[in-house]
Amino acid sequence: MTREEISKRIVEVGIVPIVRATSSAQARRAAEAVCAGGIPIVEVTMTVPGAIELIKELVKSLGAEVLIGAGTVLDAGTAQRCIDTGAEFIVAPGFDSATVQLVKSLGKPMMSGALTPTEVIAAWRAGSDFVKIFPCGTVGGPKYIKALKAPLPQIPMIPTGGVNLNTAAEFIQAGAVALGIGGELVSTAALKAGDMKVITEAAQQFIRIVREARASAVNSAAS
């Protein structure tokens, strides 16, 4: 897939599940559970032991229909290694221009992290395809996204942090193009208990919420 096609797919799905786990095996099960719940996107963070090798394994096992990305990528070298093993998109908690340029040159979408308006603009101007607003929940959640989108409507924002079943619809209505969801979807308790059904059911709930929130937004704009 091209960079544009991958970006379009991320927007269409509207959810980027963030997989953090204490072991590679645990993370693999979480990724499979998310996909079973109808979300064909998985972000494997570099905090997972053996994360890069896991990305390679997931690319092979989950097939071409699932987008496997790398998260918590802090530098260009790590981004290169992730893409070399099959990562289709790169996510960072902050903005690093060298990483953005490398990912862009390799034809993959980049989600740079930012929080303030200045950081958001810097990441966007550098070529980040999306700007990950992180940590969004601690600075106002949906209200903060709405405030940022007012002067910056052209920048595709993906809030991360504070996105849960109660706030997801509000984030979409505030202008988010997609949602970055970690522990509220890939539950630490469920992982420890080995109960992947909880994660699969949460994925189904989030998919439904995003779909309904988008339909409501379209109806409101038309009326």
Report the portion of residues in β strands.
5-15%
CATH class value? Alpha Beta
Secondary-structure class: alpha/beta
- Please tell me what the overall shape is: globular
Radius of gyration over all CA atoms, rounded: 16 Å
Describe this entry's structure for a reader.
- β5, α6 and β6 form a beta-alpha-beta unit.
- This protein has helices at about 5-15, 25-35, 50-60, 75-85, 95-105, 115-125, 140-150, 170-175, 190-195, 195-220; strands at about 15-20, 40-45, 65-70, 90, 110-115, 130-135, 155-160, 180.
- α2 crosses α10, α4 (about 75-85) packs parallel to α5 and α7 (about 140-150) packs parallel to α8 (about 170-175).
- It is built from ten helices and eight strands.
- With about 220 residues, the protein is of the alpha/beta class.
- The protein has one domain (about 5-215): Aldolase class I (TIM Barrel, Alpha-Beta Barrel), CATH 3.20.20.70.
- The protein is globular, with a radius of gyration of 16 Å.
- The protein starts with a helix and ends with a helix.
- The mean pLDDT is about 95.
- The chain is about 50% helix and about 15% strand.
- The protein has a four-stranded parallel sheet with strand order 3-2-1-8. A four-stranded parallel sheet has the order 4-5-6-7.
Key terms:
alpha/beta; 8 strands; four-stranded parallel β-sheet; 223 residues; single chain; TIM Barrel
Summarize the structure.
With about 220 residues, this protein is α/β, with parallel strands linked by helices.
Topology:
Layout: H1 3-13, E1 15-19, H2 24-36, E2 41-45, H3 51-62, E3 67-71, H4 76-84, E4 90-91, H5 97-105, E5 110-114, H6 117-126, E6 130-133, H7 142-149, E7 157-159, H8 168-174, E8 179-181, H9 188-193, H10 196-222
Parallel strand pairs: 1-2, 1-8, 2-3, 4-5, 5-6, 6-7
